[in-house]
Specification:
The protein has 198 residues and is mostly helical. 77% of the residues lie in helices and 0% in strands. The protein contains 10 helices and no strands. InterPro entries: Homeodomain-like_sf (IPR009057), HTH-type_TetR-like_transc_reg (IPR050109), HTH_TetR (IPR001647).
């Protein structure tokens, strides 16, 4: 029984990984169940047996992606604005194009749109956690600061700099650090500023 369960889990992961690879390469609308099956080395029916639909396989792929992103984000040094941006740019270099395509197609993607809403909410919570000591205490000022940080660190900001303005990764990182620094500057004391000067 254990071996059978392992085999089922391995097949599910192989299908989800195949779907993830396809999503990284092209829009969701251009991917078929047959593409996912071929990528996973299984039959069309096997994909349906495990996930019921293309959407189900895509949801599993995005859950894997979310897990990988969370692993990357756990490496952030809390209170270091500079390191936060470096980790985000690393994430966006790996997955940013998929994130943008996903966000732009969200209204047509059913359950995938709900995952996008969850990802946005999760990003907001993460920002509040990693920037915690650098944020103002007053609720209104804190909310405004978080709104600005969300805009400065959003995948669309990375896309504008990296894809539309064709900046290098290094210049994109410097620009996003400047944006984040501009948001935090009015709220930080001298020792907090010193943390990010390295």
């Amino acid at each position: 029984m254990g071996a059978r369960a392992d085999e089922v889990a391995a097949t599910r992961e192989r299908i989800a990984r195949a779907a993830q690879g396809l999503l990284l390469a092209r829009p969701y609308e251009d991917i078929t169940l047959a593409d996912i099956a071929t990528g996973a080395g299984v039959s069309h029916q096997t994909v349906l047996n495990h996930f019921d639909s293309k959407e189900g396989a895509a949801v599993a792929a995005l859950e894997l992606l979310r897990s990988e992103i969370q692993g990357l984000r756990r490496s952030v040094r809390h209170g270091s604005a500079s390191h936060v941006v470096e980790v985000l740019v690393e994430q966006y270099e790996q997955f940013g194009d998929l994130n943008v395509r996903w966000a732009m197609s969200a209204e047509r993607l059913g359950r995938l749109a709900l995952l996008l809403d969850q990802a946005r909410a999760g990003h907001r919570i993460w920002l509040e956690t990693v920037f915690g000591t650098l944020l103002p205490d007053a609720p209104t000022a804190r909310r405004r600061c978080l709104n600005a940080l969300h805009a400065a660190t959003d995948v669309y900001t990375w896309k504008l700099l990296r894809r539309d303005l064709l900046l290098s990764r290094a210049e994109t990182t410097r620009t996003m650090k400047a944006l984040v620094g501009g948001v935090l500057e009015p709220h930080r004391g001298d020792d907090e500023k010193a943390v990010d000067e390295h």
